[in-house]
Write a structure and sequence with these properties.
D-Amino Acid Oxidase, Chain A, domain 2; 3 domains; FAD/NAD(P)-binding domain; 29% strand; 31% helix; single chain; alpha+beta
Length: 412
């Protein structure tokens, strides 16, 4: 893919309803790869799409490829924070996302029915004083629609098998033998990044022992329509967050999460860990999955003419909803650095990108790790945890700092 129009007439539209994003149309046969490109972006998730969009908006010669034949439609990440909306606004994406999402002005931690911590975003210095609850599928579809509007597209399915770089560029080989010569290659191809592995970049960290269940459900009863709530209970924790289209996201750590959680399983989680008065009823499980949480950061974000962004560069607990947001912020920063270099500037701008974004990733990993460990603490220590949290968050400066960190505004 280059910044030229796609070879097929199909043009994806921004989703018309928040609950059911419009599908990404797929060409009848894969468009051909160009022989050369200034920037090859590998991976068409949120980070890759944002990077491609930002570069195409600059008028750059950009190619973005993805190994999957079609875009995924599961919701996965479900929140876009204030700082992310700020950087997406100049790209013409923030307004469309806000129209499709639910604005959640507060994040609350409760011990069953009792409020332990309330984080308020409404007073933050931003045009977006809330967490925007919207599925990742909708976010990706909106980014893709804007990319298409500016003359870009995603080439599918193209799986990278080898990278061979020299002083002038990188020769990229794909699964069926095709090759592209790129001045710069960006790996935005996720936690199991082929680009990162081919570049020989280490990915240090580990994996939490517990598994997590995730489900998008329709709820009835005493459930908030615009508040994200983390419930503590003797049986463990559960997060209940609103999504567009009358859905809610439910996330909980469990000893052995089922691959596809049933309605009865999710109902039991909410009964045991959610509110103890005003029963919440699970009416339908729309989609569900399980996952394990990793915490890793790449040793460097640059190896010669190869760069990393998004989950290829850092992964961590979903606590605080920082993963996708950090990847989008990576992409915008990297687009600025690459633009400077393509205009003849010093390549030190790319080193500065890593020197700035990698420490932020480390901060996010530490914050998510602390939140995860506090949330999953042993039952004997849970009463003490609640007292400590309730005490320290009575301090306005502590609550404001948490709001700034969760919103991403502290990383401006």
């Amino acid at each position: 893919m280059t910044s030229q129009p796609p070879t097929t007439p199909a043009t994806p539209a921004i989703p018309t309803t928040p609950a059911t994003p419009q599908p990404f149309p797929q060409p009848s046969s894969p468009p051909r790869l160009p022989a050369t490109t200034d920037v090859l972006v590998v991976g068409a998730g949120p980070a890759g799409l944002t990077l491609a969009l930002a570069l195409v908006a600059q008028g750059r010669d950009v190619t973005v490829v993805d190994a999957h034949a079609a875009a995924e439609h599961t919701s996965r990440a479900a929140v876009v924070h204030a700082r992310t909306l700020e950087v997406l606004a100049p790209l013409g994406v923030a307004g469309a996302l806000v129209e499709l999402g639910i604005q959640s002005p507060t994040f609350t931690i409760r011990d069953r029915d009792r409020v332990v911590v309330r984080i308020d975003f409404e007073g933050l210095p931003t045009d977006y004083p809330y967490s925007l609850m919207v599925s990742q599928a909708t976010t990706e579809a909106t980014l893709s629609a804007r990319l298409t509007e500016l003359g870009g597209t995603v080439l599918r399915p193209y799986s990278v098998t080898a990278l061979d770089q020299d002083a002038d560029g990188v020769t990229v080989t794909f699964e069926h033998g095709e090759q592209v010569r790129a001045a710069w290659v960006v790996g935005a191809d996720g936690m199991h990044s082929t680009v990162r592995e081919q570049a020989g970049i280490g990915f240090q960290g580990g994996t939490y022992g517990e598994s997590f269940v995730l489900a998008d459900v329709r709820l009835g009863g005493a459930v908030s329509a615009d508040e994200v709530i983390l419930y503590f209970a003797p049986a463990g924790l559960v997060v209940v967050a609103p999504l567009p289209g009358g859905r809610h996201r439910v996330v909980a750590p469990v000893a052995d999460a089922p691959h596809e959680p049933s309605l009865a399983f999710v109902q039991e989680l909410i009964d045991e860990r959610g509110p103890s008065t005003g029963r919440v009823v699970v009416e339908e499980v729309v989609w569900g999955s399980r996952f394990r949480v990793h915490h890793r950061v790449a040793d460097t974000y640059r190896a010669g003419r190869i760069l990393l962004a998004g989950d290829a560069a850092h992964v961590h607990s979903p606590a605080g909803g920082q993963g996708m947001n950090a990847g989008i912020l990576d992409a915008v920063a990297l687009a600025d650095a690459l633009g400077s270099v393509l205009d003849g500037g010093a390549t030190s701008a790319l080193d500065a990108y890593g020197a700035t974004r990698r420490p932020i990733a480390e901060q996010i990993v530490r914050l998510a790790d602390r939140m995860t460990r506090v949330a999953t603490i042993t039952p004997a220590l849970r009463p003490l945890r609640n007292v400590v949290l309730r005490t320290i968050t009575r301090i306005p400066a502590v609550r404001r700092d948490l709001a700034l960190r969760l919103s991403g505004l502290t990383y401006r």
